[in-house]
Structure formats: C-alpha cells, structure tokens
Amino acid sequence: MRIVKLSSQSVAFPSPEAALHDPNGLLAIGGDLAPARLLAAYERGIFPWYSPGEAILWWSPDPRAVLFPAQFHVSRSFKRFLRNPPFRITLNHDFAAVIAACSYRPDEGTWIGEEVQQAYLQLHHLGHAHSIEVWQGEELVGGLYGVAQGALFCGESMFSRTTNASKCALWAFCRHFAGYGGELVDCQVLNAHTARLGAREIPRRQFLQQLSNLQRRVLAPECWTAQVIPPQLVELPSQTD
C-alpha cells in the first residue's frame, strides 16, 4: 500500500480500505481544505489531521472510536455535579471562538492552524459544521465542534478551561443530538478522556456502514439552529457507575 497524492483537479478520494496500517489510517496527502473536498472526505469517513505548515494529511483509522449518545457514561461524581452545574450551554453561538480555543493545547502549543480554522468556519457558514459552547457567566470555558453527516456527527475537537466543561459540552450535545434523532458520534481515535465518557472502538468497516446508513437521515433544521440547549433535552442519561 502507498499514500495517494490528491489531485488539485478532483475532490475524489481513494477507498478508506487502502489506508496504511502504520501509521494507522493514513490514506492520502495534499489537496486543499475547500468545502467541496472536506465534505467529500467526511462523506467517505475520512478527515484531515496535520501540523500547521506541513502538507495536508488525510486519515481513516481502523478501528474507529465512536460514542453512541445513549451510552454516555455518567459517573457518580459527575451526576452530583450535574445537580447544580455552574454553566450555560449553547449551540452555534460562537463557532469561531470554539475552534480557536480548541487550537491551543498548553502542552503542545497550537495544533489547529489558521488554515484549518478558516476552512471549518466556512463549513459552519454553509451549515455543515457546528459548535457547542459552555459558558461560566460571560466567559467561554469549554466546547466542542464537528461536522454533521445526517444522524451521525463527526466530532473534531473539544477544549476545557475549567473542571467538567468539556464533559458537559459532550454530555449536553449527546442529549440534544439524540433528541432530534442523532444516533452516533464519531470520535475518530480513542483516547483516555473519551473512553471514560463511554466511547469505544469498532472496526472501520462497521463504522463506514453506519456512516452510509446514518448520513441519509435528515434531521429537523431546528436541531442546528443557534440556541440555548433547553433542560428538557439534556436530562440525565440512565447509565451510572
């Protein structure tokens, strides 16, 4: 197997099954982040991930990390926290601020470059990319963003500036998304944080089948209207320790 160099004249991608095993999921290099190419990638279970200043790399790992909203894990301590959370949670109120906040990690520096931020902001303006914001007073303290594919949501990144902020963002999003018929959140690659919240790995072939089925579902437009997420759509899941 070899890495495919993408053509500037086409937004076509090779099959995800052609991705490398090492590094896991690397499929192609090059191209651009124009909306048509990004959407073509997400429709096939492919996403860009690369460092600022380097060539664009496209990935489709096997296995794939996913979270079924109903399986979000609520620990006893988080359940206690949710009885009186200090946050206000909104949808699509400040996408630009969320992706900018996600771009910086104290231990790694900036990893989501300006090119990526502008590309996803374009997708947001076109109605494909969405954000969850977590506010403490007037301060943005957490959030996440990603790309919608029907009843599947491709989570890209999240951030937290205070305890439980990103956890609340994902918890609220899962409840809201499921309330409108959403069935699956793509977490791309499993890490310790998402695993604790209920994410798990499934074979890429199974993920691609789920993607094919769920991206055909059309959710009500109200799902993505800028709004404060109402309490009746973010009630506690049943899973606890």
TrEMBL record:
It comes from Serratia fonticola. Gene3D superfamilies: Leucyl/phenylalanyl-tRNA-protein transferase, C-terminal domain, Leucyl/phenylalanyl-tRNA-protein transferase, N-terminal domain. Its main location: cytoplasm. It is an enzyme of class 2 (transferase). It catalyses: N-terminal L-lysyl-[protein] + L-leucyl-tRNA(Leu) = N-terminal L-leucyl-L-lysyl-[protein] + tRNA(Leu) + H(+); L-phenylalanyl-tRNA(Phe) + an N-terminal L-alpha-aminoacyl-[protein] = an N-terminal L-phenylalanyl-L-alpha-aminoacyl-[protein] + tRNA(Phe); N-terminal L-arginyl-[protein] + L-leucyl-tRNA(Leu) = N-terminal L-leucyl-L-arginyl-[protein] + tRNA(Leu) + H(+). It is found in: Cytoplasm. Its EC number is 2.3.2.6. Belongs to the L/F-transferase family. Keywords: Acyltransferase, Cytoplasm, Transferase. One of its GO terms (molecular function) is leucyl-tRNA--protein transferase activity. This is Leucyl/phenylalanyl-tRNA--protein transferase. Functions in the N-end rule pathway of protein degradation where it conjugates Leu, Phe and, less efficiently, Met from aminoacyl-tRNAs to the N-termini of proteins containing an N-terminal arginine or lysine.
